[in-house]
Amino acid sequence: MATTRPTAASVRRDLLDEQAALDEIVGDLTSEQWALATASPRWSVADQIAHLAYFDESASWAIADEDRFRASLDDLGPAFDPDAGAEAVDDLTLGAFRSMPPAELLAAWRTNRRLLADAAATLSDDTRVIWYGPSMGAKSFLTARLMECWAHGQHIVDAVDAERQATDRLQHIAQLGFITRNWTYLNRGLDAPAAPVRVELLAPSGDTWTFGPDDATQSVAGPAVDFCLVVTQCRHVDATNLVITGDDARDWMTKAQAFAGAATDGPPA
Q1: pLDDT at 183
Q2: CATH 1.20.120.450 corresponds to the domain 8-152
């Protein structure tokens, strides 16, 4: 079965459901669990939620208050100076949240994602939204927020040893992971291999999601959740049940990066 075509409204609904699923996990954590370190350098469980809170609010401004969003860009500018260091970005985006106790931080995230939900309800499929790089189509913009929630949520799940049910909301992340293959190489200053790659994924529901040409000689196949873990750099491909055919497909899966920002490497093998 091929993937279905989403709309801005359907992605928004899935984003709300993904946020609610993560809320169910973090809502029951102890103070000690909120302080646990995660796979993200320098970040605790609380910092993962703080990151989502900050950028969900920024996303609401990008949709509903462009002037306020552009003003926030000016505030962030000095932190992105190469000499400032990664901690400078953390100080600006996470600093205010790091002074909050867990209950207050959770309330802040709930408030900010509600702002995003209300703003996103005004989007049509052909709306473009300003962001930190080029503007994005509404569906891509909301898909990126869903991917962020799921990926940062995975770091939390891993840190607190929780369980999270995989759902077909992963289809949005899988599609994003596929279409960002060229970006993975461009972001590293490399030429993307010319050979096409076929991706065939088993959805949590039992459906099959396919991307790429049927006659491609190189392929990635396996559970959709594993593909999503790899393209969001939550797992190394060798720690999954993905079956890789072809050197170019293998190279992609060792470098895959479905998110914006500087090129980064996922977990080691």
Answers
A1: 95
A2: yes
Contact (CB, 8 A) for 48 and 40: yes
- Determine the Cα–Cα distance for residues 234 and 226; give it in Å rounded to an integer: 9
pLDDT at 202 over 80: yes
Q: Please determine, for residue 85, whether its predicted confidence score (pLDDT) is greater than 70.
A: no
Q: Where are the domains of the chain?
A: 8-152, 171-255
Per-residue pLDDT reduced to its tens digit, 25-57: 999 999 999 999 999 989 999 999 999 999 999
What is the dotted CATH code of the domain comprising 171-255? Answer: 3.30.1050
Phi, psi of 33 (to 5 degrees): -70, -35
| pLDDT confidence band for 1 (50 / 70 / 90) | very low
The residue type at 268? P
68 pLDDT above the threshold of 70 = yes
The DSSP bridge pattern shows strands 197-202 and 218-223 to be parallel
